[in-house]
Input
Amino acid sequence: MLKKAFSPRGVDGVDEPAGSSSGVAVDPQDVKKPKSFFKDKKEKEHEKEQWGKMRDVACLHGDAADSGGLHCHDKELVNKRGLLQDLIKQLTLDMPSNLIKGKNLLTISMPVRIFEPRSFLEKILDTWYEAPVHLSNAADASDPVERMKHVLAWMISGFSRSFGNWQKPFNPLLGETWEGSMEDGTTIWCEQVSHHPPISSFVGRGPQGKFTIYGVSEPTVSFKGNAVKTKPLGRKYVRFSDGGCIEMTYPTYFVKNIVFGTPKGEIEGCASLVDMQNGLICEFDISPKGKPRSVPSDVLQGTIRKAVFVSDEDKEAAASQASKKRFYWSFKKEKMTDVPEGHPPVKQAFGHSRKSAHKEVPCVEQYGDIIAEFSGSWLSHIDFDSERFWTLNQCKSYRAIPSEKPLPSDSRFRKDLQLLKEGSGSKGDMGVVIGPP
Output
């Protein structure tokens, strides 16, 4: 027997059947739903279908996790979980504020058993494997938009390679260097230029000077629950022989499930490429907000568009005025954003705050028209306006080859690295604790 589906009380306070005024029982399935319900449902299904296309299974990385990111198959790292648990317990007991405040783990002494026999200076180059291909194409491109596309392809090609080795590299010593080259003739120099905070500088020059990669890396590493979070602060530039230059900032890296669960690497957040000379900015978001939960976290989408940037003179004037008011604003918790008329707010000009001003992208005073849109996954491909532009592992890779005659300050001469490389697994050397640089 059908149950009566009643609508809210009528004007006279008497219950009336839904969809009828005669009191006849109506099947709830026969009640017409608003058109907007069907429209929303269709839109959601279409949106989910579009999100699903952003990950190409045909060229997907072999270690890709269904939920997104890269699975860790490093048995050594998995076997060292007990060591990581002991380390976290010790940090919690001795320095609980380190974990609560997200203290940079690069400044904390750690057992050598979780290290790989390499310096961080060498690990920087893990993401450069496809640089000779993409940056040569970028140098040959006469169109600034096409050039930015090639630089973007190089940037994304390095994301999956950043998880090529899951162990921690050694912190470089102040003044430590690493030099080498690639098979195409690209020459590379790296040096540790700051003690605290640890900052590494690097320069890579392509054949005939077609392109030059340079910048600084100031990573901050912290625990975040069951994960380790790495924020690659600093800036990276690619300069070309014709005078063009593109500035790059990177998203945040995670190694999740390090204590329990299946370890995997993920990348989240926003990244950008800026060409101030031609008024172009490329911005993309990995695992963007609003995507359905069923969609893997490694998908990304972004745009290349015209932009007007705040000049360095305007930023310097804003910073100068900000420093004059710093004393008065020290009594307030809120961030200062009022600056003289004609200058951008400090928060807007520097991205976040004065403290991290040198690490943020140039301020965009005004956005212009969108020139190109792209989407895909850092584990499979990138499509520009529905046309395939980059596919994972379909470009030739070039490894960095160490110099045969390095400087005496080269990281390969470090005794601790040599001991770990020669006696990895021996109980005698594994008890050493390597502190911060």
